[in-house]
């Protein structure tokens, strides 16, 4: 199937707020693919996702270099209870609060999803050795009857 997740992020002190969409195609007749869009533009496309389920790539947004890290192993190989992790790391101004999320950045699916489908909580931001990092992690819920 297809999974869509969206959030908003600001890269750099003077950068504007951007819409970020992560789209993962895991089913159907085509090979799984991952797309990351910033303001409706595809900035990352990962083909051969069965082999490249973990990786990173540098993109440029508002003149700032942003490194995107992804791990979608469990989406592909444990789809029932699988999680995925996405991280956006700026490599520009080390003193700024880059990759800062906005107050209305709660990630919501682009389309209504049943409770059993992965849901994406708001990102958390923290600082490691001068680099601000934003982590996006999916979570899932399941229920069983006894």
Using brief descriptors, characterize the structure shown.
146 residues; mainly beta; 5-stranded antiparallel β-sheet; 4-stranded antiparallel β-sheet; 3% helix; 44% strand; disordered C terminus; DUF868_pln
Task: Summarize it.
The protein has 146 residues and is mainly beta. It has one helix and nine strands, in the order ββββββαβββ. It has one helix spanning 73-77; strands spanning 2-10, 17-25, 33-38, 41-46, 54-61, 64-71, 85-90, 124-128, 131-137.
Write up what this structure looks like.
The protein is mainly β and 146 residues long. The protein has one domain (2-137). Helix content is 3%, strand content 44%. It is built from one helix and nine strands, in the order E-E-E-E-E-E-H-E-E-E. It has one helix at residues 73-77; strands at 2-10, 17-25, 33-38, 41-46, 54-61, 64-71, 85-90, 124-128, 131-137. Strands 5-6-7-9-8 form a five-stranded antiparallel beta sheet, with no helix packed on it. Strand 1 and strand 2 form a beta hairpin. The longest helix is centred in the middle third of the chain and has 5 residues, at 73-77.
Give the uncertain stretches in residue-range form. Answer: 93-109, 122-131, 136-146
Largest sheet: 5 strands, antiparallel
What is the gyration radius calculated from CA atoms?
Answer: 15 Å
The count of DSSP E runs of length 2 or more, i.e. the number of strands, is: 9
Number of domains: 1
Kindly state the mean pLDDT as a whole number?
72
Shape: elongated
Q: Quote the distance from N terminus to C terminus.
A: 29 Å
Order of helices and strands: EEEEEEHEEE
Q: Order of strands in the sheet with the most strands?
A: 5-6-7-9-8
């Amino acid at each position: 199937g297809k999974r869509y997740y969206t959030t908003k992020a600001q890269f750099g002190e003077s950068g504007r707020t951007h819409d970020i969409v992560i789209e993962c195609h895991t089913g159907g007749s085509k090979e799984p693919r991952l797309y990351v869009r910033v303001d409706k533009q595809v900035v990352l496309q990962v083909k051969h996702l069965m082999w490249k389920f973990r990786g990173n790539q540098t993109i440029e947004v508002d003149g700032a270099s942003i490194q995107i890290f992804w791990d979608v192993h469990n989406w592909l190989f444990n789809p029932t209870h699988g999680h995925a992790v996405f991280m956006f790391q700026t490599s520009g101004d080390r003193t700024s609060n880059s990759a800062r999320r906005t107050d209305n950045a709660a990630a919501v699916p682009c389309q209504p999803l049943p409770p059993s489908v992965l849901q994406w909580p708001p990102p958390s931001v923290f600082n490691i050795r001068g680099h601000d990092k934003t982590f996006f992690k999916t979570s899932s819920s399941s229920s069983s009857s006894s």
